Amino acid sequence: VHLVQSGAELRNPGASVKVSCKASGYTFTAYQIDWMRKAPGQGLEWMGRIHPGDGGTKYAQNFQGRVTFTADTSTSTAYLELSSLRSEDTAVYYCAVGVAGTYDWWGQGTQVTVSS
């Protein structure tokens, strides 16, 4: 199983960013994909999840209104889009898949830097 994320991004404050997570080695529609981030000096923060099987989403309250998860079943790729970026959004963003209660597979992480 592989979860391969897109490369590092640099954005200005107020812009948006879209991070991809391409899955292989398992049935993409079988398991939900969670998104998390780790900012410098902070712990891992859960942002929400999407189930590619039915497109259902759940967003953490801290991000509601600013984040959108989508999934393209034709390419087995999940996407996170975060808008109205601010410096506090500078972090490494991760996708992860859990099969039986824990996260079994992780993407390699995508550095997003928000700076003017």
List the helices and strands and how they pair.
Layout: E1 2-5, E2 9-11, E3 17-24, E4 33-38, E5 44-51, E6 56-59, E7 67-72, E8 77-82, E9 91-98, E10 103-106, E11 110-114
Parallel strand pairs: 2-11
Antiparallel strand pairs: 1-3, 3-8, 4-5, 4-9, 5-6, 7-8, 9-10, 9-11
Q: Could you characterize what this model shows?
A:
Strands 2, 4, 5, 6, 9, 10 and 11 form a seven-stranded mixed sheet that branches. Strands 1-3-8-7 form a four-stranded antiparallel sheet, with no helix packed on it. A hairpin with a 4-residue loop joins strand 9 and strand 10. It has 116 residues and is mainly beta. It contains no helices and eleven strands. The model has no long low-confidence stretch (mean pLDDT 96). The radius of gyration is 13 Å and the shape is globular. The chain has strands at 2-5, 9-11, 17-24, 33-38, 44-51, 56-59, 67-72, 77-82, 91-98, 103-106, 110-114.
Short description:
This protein has no helices and eleven strands.
Which word captures the global form? globular
Roughly how many Å apart are the termini?
37 Å
Largest sheet: 7 strands, mixed
Query: Mean of the pLDDT scores?
Result: 96
Strand runs, count: 11
What is the helix/strand order? EEEEEEEEEEE
Runs in which pLDDT lies below 50 for 5 or more consecutive residues are: none
The helix/strand class is mainly beta
